[in-house]
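Technical annex, item 7. During the second reporting period the consortium partners agreed on a shared format for inverse folding records so that results from different sites could be compared directly. Each record opens with the tokenized structure and is followed by the designed sequence. A conforming record, contributed by the partner at site C, is shown below for reference.
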């Protein structure tokens, strides 16, 4: 059971990484937009509460969202505590 939970956590971490990559891809319609929508619907429930506490950091004309990094670290800690 513990190994299954660890595997699910690692799959979720990969989904977060893929969602990060999709934030760098210009928005489009069609298949990529659908994949993006699914990825964000999976990751946003975890990232949104973190974003409400840790706001993105302004970097030049853009901003750096630290919530995925914090989520991955927390998930890794949880996985190691199992």
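Designed sequence (site C submission):
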């Amino acid at each position: 059971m513990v190994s299954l939970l660890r595997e699910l956590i690692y799959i979720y971490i990969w989904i977060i990484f893929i969602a990060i990559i999709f934030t760098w891809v210009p928005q489009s319609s069609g298949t990529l937009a659908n994949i993006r929508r699914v990825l964000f619907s999976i990751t946003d429930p975890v990232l949104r509460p973190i974003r409400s506490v840790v706001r993105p950091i302004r970097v030049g004309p853009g901003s750096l969202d630290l919530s995925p990094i914090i989520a991955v670290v927390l998930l890794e800690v949880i996985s190691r505590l199992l």
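The mean pLDDT is 93. The radius of gyration is 14 Å. All partners now use this format for quarterly exchanges.
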